[in-house]
Amino acid sequence: MMLLVIFVLPAGCGDKDLVEVETMSFEQYYLQEKSEICVPEQVVCGTECAWAITTGKNDVIYQVAYGNESPEVKEITWQQDEAEHLISIAYENGKLYAMVRMDEGKTLEIRYYRLGGEFETYRAIEAEAEQGLAVGTLFWVDAEKNVYIAEGNAVTRFDAGTGEKTGITLDGTPCVFLETENGVECLVEESDGIGLYGIEGKNVKKRWKIKKAVRNVKTVRNSDAETLFLVSGSALMLVDRATGTLLAETDLLLMGAHDVLAGNYETEDSTLWLFQKGNGTEGRLEISQFERKEAGTEERRIQLVYGTMGTINEDVDDSIKAAIMQFNQENKNYYITIKNYHDDVDLRRLHAEFASGNAPDILDLTYSFYYESYVQNGYLTDLRPYLERSDYKDDIIWNVLDTYQIDGGLYLLAPQFSITAMAVHPEYAAEIETWNMQTFRTLLEENQWEKDVWQGYGEAERLLYKMLTGRQSEFIDRENETAAFETEEFMKLLELCKSYQESYREDAYEWTSEDLIQNELCMPLIFEDVGTYLSGTEFYGREYALYGYPTEQGQVYGVDVCPDCCGIYAGSPNKEGAWEFIESLLEESHQKWHTGVNKGFPIRKSLLREVQEEWQPITFSNGEKVSMTEAEYEILETIIYEENLVRDTIDKNVWNVIEEEAASYFAGDKSVEEAVGLIQRRIELILSE
């Protein structure tokens, strides 16, 4: 059981800071994680029950009753002909409506359903052009049975009596229609917030606007006519319906909820139902029930902030979202909220927060381009002491994790990882006895650039990045703060990349994916699971060899982190709590869940083979089912456990210098000696700072 705290503010506070005047708490006392409803696409809520439709072609409509801990689910048949397709559903004034596409999209039928009855056709909408009807992104029917279909920022209204069409244009994307005592209203997602519009015929009037970043806005049906419950991303907001004043806001993850499709709140018994899209490949509908508690119940746990480098449309990776939700439900001492740094402006803000001591407790290090710089500047906590005392210590694949070691310290945890290797074209693979830079150069001499290399697409900088990734230790010694770019070896590397750019075939830009495989001398492959290896057997054959980045002494394979990689801010006052969360990512439920959905090998030895076996066989495009042989397992596991591994990224600050100065040489503006001299001096300066 867990508590949700909402701080309610005085109406009319406008843009003022939040002022606590009342506390509402909800306790989750029921969660059905895996209903029988797979891959839900839409849920609408009525007074007595909710209805759900799925992405399954011609699937039934599911009716879910409120009022008990195991909601009763009934199937409702809507289809009257095999050629029909269910597009959307809507609920208003005691009726469920369905929009059905017919006649190859030339007709839309609006049907209505009464509880215990059958669907009846209410209206048919015919296309006026040969290309058919646009089905829109939002569908609704008001109390007078006028039909509304939204597409982009436009709404088309079909009159209940005459069927006459009326076009309406709004300042954003319509997301919810509402029936009120003031008539029809529409909530609209705008570029800088959410607005409420009144609609009367062709006339549109904006009633209010909340200036707040929003995405994928949904409503929770609310029996209180004076307020609105809105869901946007991971936020649940309580809004004054008349003025648009934001009365309250809370984090859904703190409630143990996520990806809400719809909800229902009954004021009389203080019960909140939420319908959520589940995680995993099946994505089963999850149903949660909360009960409002008495005022005065407060959140006494310590807050941890998770700083993510996600996008404005997706705050955090699904695997981390699930882990945070589970942590918030189970941990008695801490809870986690999310702070998003989604663009370059936010990244600069994060760096300023590092310097001022106000950065998030837990840091998303999925994009680890600045990892070395963060460690060098003292921004990250060494996790090795925590791992040394962890129950999972002896189950860690240290050969992988230690690639992120810096001066004996380990400043991130990668619960899942991927391996970068390459396959050599079968025409040349048989000739290879040992793999190193000399072998690689010999291949290039034989091939004379007839085939592409490392999917560089003729760009010298792309090939240089790949080649340099495996050879960073040859040219950079961070421990002694020295560099070795002003050398014959690095000049040869630049000359090779320039020769590649000058020899690139013009017709390569028109290659299909099949052409690309046929014309790739050395194909880079990122292995996130055994399926990646098996898919390569169609071209390279069973038990094909994998090679690493060639070096003068031999080869190294690349390691990269997955979207659940994170570290602890060195200035956090709550390091123990932050570690409790990070360590939870090593639990079996997270390791297996993440690997099944977002891909990535688990970092725990005991689960590595088990997880891969669970996701076999894979099916080729021709229908053939294949599984790994023991020899193929050994090829991958030898790389993971025994081969030399390197981080599959170059520090961003270092690469920016190399890329900038090398580009002047590739363009013919500087000699190779001038370019490497500048690179040498600038990298030495970075290392000494």
Give structural notes.
Helix 18 packs antiparallel against helix 19. The longest helix has 17 residues. The N terminus is likely disordered. The chain has 689 residues and is α+β, with helices and mostly antiparallel strands. It has a nine-stranded mixed beta sheet with strand order 1-2-25-24-23-19-20-21-22. Strands 31, 32, 35, 36, 37, 39 and 42 form a seven-stranded mixed beta sheet that branches. The two termini are 50 Å apart. It is built from 19 helices and 42 strands.
The count of DSSP E runs of length 2 or more, i.e. the number of strands, is 42
On the 0 to 100 scale, the average pLDDT is 86
Low-confidence stretches: 1-23
Radius of gyration: 29 Å
Q: How much of the residues is beta strand, in percent?
A: 25-35%
Biggest beta sheet attributes: 9 strands, mixed
Q: Strand arrangement, largest sheet?
A: 1-2-25-24-23-19-20-21-22
Global structural class: alpha+beta
- What is the helical fraction, as a range of percent? 25-40%
Number of helical stretches of at least 4 residues: 19
End-to-end separation: 50 Å
Tell me, briefly, the overall form: globular
How are the SSEs ordered, and which strands pair?
Elements: E1 3-8, E2 22-32, E3 40-45, E4 49-54, E5 61-65, E6 73-76, E7 85-92, E8 95-102, E9 107-113, E10 119-126, E11 138-141, E12 147-151, E13 154-158, E14 165-169, E15 173-180, E16 183-190, E17 193-200, E18 203-210, E19 218-222, E20 227-232, E21 235-240, E22 246-251, H1 252-255, E23 260-266, E24 271-277, E25 285-293, E26 302-308, H2 318-330, E27 334-340, H3 344-356, E28 362-364, H4 371-376, H5 384-388, H6 398-401, E29 405-406, E30 409-410, E31 416-424, H7 426-429, H8 437-447, E32 452-453, H9 460-469, H10 472-475, E33 476-477, E34 482-483, H11 488-503, H12 513-518, E35 520-527, H13 530-540, E36 549-550, E37 555-561, E38 566-568, H14 575-584, H15 588-597, E39 601-602, H16 605-614, E40 618-619, E41 625-626, H17 630-641, E42 645-647, H18 652-666, H19 672-688
Parallel strand pairs: 19-23, 26-27, 26-28, 32-35, 37-42
Antiparallel strand pairs: 1-2, 2-25, 3-4, 4-5, 5-6, 7-8, 8-9, 9-10, 11-12, 12-13, 13-14, 15-16, 16-17, 17-18, 19-20, 20-21, 21-22, 23-24, 24-25, 28-38, 29-30, 31-35, 31-37, 31-39, 33-34, 36-37, 40-41
Helix pairs in contact: 2-15, 9-11, 18-19
